[in-house]
Write the structure tokens for this entry.
Amino acid sequence: MKPARDGRTPLKKPVQPLISAAGEPIDAKKKRARQIVARLKKLYTDADCALEHGSPLQLLVATILSAQCTDVRVNMVTPVLFKRYPNVEALANADASELEKVIQSTGFFRNKTRNIIGAARTIRDRFNGRVPDTMAELLELPGVARKTANVVLGTWFEKNEGFVVDTHVGRLAHRLGLTWQSKDNKDAVKIERDLMEIVPRDEWTFLGHALIWHGRKICTARKPNCAECVLNDICPSAFRAQDDIQPPVNTESKARTPKTTGALKRRRESKK
């Protein structure tokens, strides 16, 4: 190896991850999952849903809108939407063409319009105007599958019935070696099943939010910033996706912790 210009021997790019998830026993995965939760809790103390909302209905509608759309875009649309349609009755009686105009920028707006109006009518007619708080009942609503139901149950009702698996969670679950049955990071059903097996139940909602935040800030899809990651010494994929030579493992991250979301503040106030 040629010495660097300053006389120091350059760092070797890691060829193998610091740990291997291949053949890792379930008990070892559970231990590592607990470590991941503990570290992310220090980094993202108030990890929460990025969708702005002030009620379970608003959270439900925002989550339906978030399909194939960024949270940023949804948060630009919902203030106007919720002002025009402030409750279940207003949404249930909404004119489809008018609602489509409001949510058009979120994409797939015709299908989303049908689902939002259909869900509102079902809530009005079958659940006395209240968003249901069980998995079985939520799945009866048009446009609601497990992911949306998990968001509403975990975020608003604080019930850990499942694990939210979006694009970030799927990617990080694979990179962290927390899933072994799924074929890829889009296999949400098996990823959720694996995460539920090794992550303590009372941490499901928190870890879902924290992985999303971490996936946006540090473990991005194209170029994960392993050098700044607090998980790099317990991640099977650490430094493998990097093109640059990386420094030794660090134990502290310089990632700035996101501020408490407005949705979290409003939810706390509404439950006092």
Observations:
- The chain has two domains: 26-48+162-257, 56-160.
- Residues 26-43 form the longest helix (18 residues).
- The radius of gyration is 21 Å.
- The chain is about 50% helix and 0% strand.
